[in-house]
Design brief:
The chain has a six-stranded parallel beta sheet, sandwiched between helices. The protein has one domain (about 20-255): Decaprenyl diphosphate synthase-like (Undecaprenyl pyrophosphate synthetase, 3-Layer(aba) Sandwich), CATH 3.40.1180. Helix content is about 45%, strand content about 15%. The chain is built from nine helices and six strands; from the N terminus they run H-E-H-H-E-H-E-H-E-H-H-E-E-H-H. It is of the alpha/beta class and about 260 residues long. It has helices at about 5-15, 30-40, 45-65, 85-105, 120-135, 150-165, 175-180, 225-235, 250-255; strands at about 25-30, 70-75, 110-115, 140-150, 190-195, 215. The structure holds 3-methylbut-3-enyl trihydrogen diphosphate (2 copies) and magnesium ion.
């Protein structure tokens, strides 16, 4: 995709390299419960305020030219939370989609989902499918919600499909696994952000993050703003990505000054 002068100017104003923006950023949105507890409120209050941070992340992704943004919204393990919290999260998902989708559409955002949606309440499934359908031709940003998602679930599903496909095990290649993941067709994230100071991956995109750079911030998710997103991208741009090889000469020389 060509980079417009406005986009270059915006990146320069944020001290970002317009030619080195990650194509795909994945975020583990964590810390809603602690954010609420700090205010003497119920956990659900944190989730409700987390929606503001989702808006900020989407806006920052659009402005900086990120093409895919994946948000970990509900893990397969999150079903083990109290029933009231799970119900509140599902209700919040529906009400947020109802409120926000026309705005997302206006911005050219294509909504997608990855995870086992069939286990979600029917009202959720219906609203998600409606939003996916109404935004399917948009192409400024793909916003991928990981819902009832976990990496081990996804890898087990992919393995089942491959075993049923009749493929000779000796012919199995990494690309076959890629093609059977919930993220099939989407490039791997170059940058993974986790908020709230936790330094773990919690069953999120284990395969796809094989060579991603990780950015951990103590900021609790409801406080995560656009500047935090640009901080993460700057951090990413200062890393040396090696992919198991050696640094390219130009890069090494520029690093040595
Ligand atoms: C992240 O915040 C939101 C979801 C997992 C749905 P948490 O609810 O995990 O908040 P903490 O980690 O308890 O603070
Ligand atoms: C990861 O956060 C899942 C989501 C952000 C949806 P958790 O809060 O559930 O993860 P753990 O339990 O701290 O590892
Ligand atoms: Mg958490």
């Amino acid at each position: 995709m060509s980079i417009s002068p406005e986009h270059r100017e915006f990146c320069a104003s944020k001290n970002l390299d317009a030619d080195g923006i990650p194509q795909h950023v994945a975020i583990i949105m964590d810390g809603n419960g602690r954010w609420a507890a700090e205010r003497g409120q119920q956990r659900v209050f944190g989730h409700m305020n987390g929606v503001n941070a989702v808006r900020s992340a989407v806006e920052a992704a659009l402005r900086s030219g990120v093409r895919y943004l994946t948000l970990y919204a509900f893990s397969t393990e999150n079903w083990s939370r109290p029933k009231e919290e799970v119900e509140a999260l599902m209700d919040l998902l529906v009400s947020t989609l109802v409120k926000e989708v026309s705005d997302l559409e206006g911005k050219g955002v294509r909504l997608r989902a990855m995870g086992d949606l069939t286990a979600l309440p029917e009202a959720c499934q219906a609203e998600i499918n409606k939003s996916i359908e109404s935004t399917k031709n948009l192409d400024s940003l793909d916003l991928i919600l990981a819902l009832n998602y976990s990496s081990k679930w996804e890898l087990v599903e992919a393995t089942k499909q491959l075993m049923k496909s009749g493929l000779d095990p000796d012919d199995l290649e990494a690309s076959h696994i890629d093609a059977h993941l919930a993220s099939a067709g989407i490039p791997d994230p170059e940058l993974m952000i986790r908020t709230s100071g936790e330094h773990r991956i919690s069953n999120f995109m284990l395969w796809q993050l094989a060579y991603a750079e990780f950015h951990f911030t103590p900021v609790l998710w409801p406080d995560f703003g656009q500047e935090d997103f640009y901080d993460a991208v700057r951090d990413y741009q200062n890393r040396d990505r090696r992919f198991g090889g050696l640094l390219d000469t130009n890069h090494t020389m520029s690093k040595q000054g």
